[in-house]
Amino acid sequence: TGASIVYTPEDSMNLNTLRQDAKFLKIRYGLDAKGKSEGRLVMRSMKCSSTVYTTDVITKIFKEEGGNLFDSRSLGHTLQGGIPSPIDCAHAVRLSLRCMAFLEEHHDALQKQVGKVKQAPPESAAVITIQGSALNWVP
């Protein structure tokens, strides 16, 4: 998922769990270079085992525990699931084609390298993003 912490229906959630997770976040943010934090993602399933520790409650706990080290915000419902719309399918195809072209391009560059040891350049690792109407690569 790329998330630092994930709350799922299979895992029980209690105050001790949240305390440990807040401690984990403090340690992770404490290791970041000052002013260069990459942020962290915490995900909570809607079917999470706790009805007491809602997304709002977790957000407030992390915000309070973060103090001056980190902030906490809720994005709300970001993934609803269900049947993909035609536009979702079109986006998926567009992203897939660009990703395959990216992989092929960097594979071809590796194949052209001479010798037993081949090394991929840093720009061969990237995340595809949608920015406005453009697809862009972020290293």
For the largest beta sheet, what order do the strands appear in spatially?
1-2
Shape: extended
Question: What is the gyration radius calculated from CA atoms?
Answer: 20 Å
Number of helical segments with 4 or more residues: 3
- Helical content stands at 25-40%
Distance between the termini: 18 Å
Explain the overall architecture.
- The protein is α+β, with helices and mostly antiparallel strands.
- It has a two-stranded parallel sheet.
- Helix 1 crosses helix 2.
- It is extended and about 55 Å long.
- The mean pLDDT is 83.
In short:
With 139 residues, the chain is of the alpha+beta class. The chain has helices at 15-31, 55-66, 86-111, and strands spanning 5-7, 42-44, 127-131, 134-138.
What secondary-structure arrangement, pairings included, does this model have?
Blueprint: E1 5-7, H1 15-31, E2 42-44, H2 55-66, H3 86-111, E3 127-131, E4 134-138
Parallel strand pairs: 1-2
Antiparallel strand pairs: 3-4
What distinguishing features does this structure have?
single chain, 139 residues, alpha+beta, two-stranded parallel ribbon, 3 helices
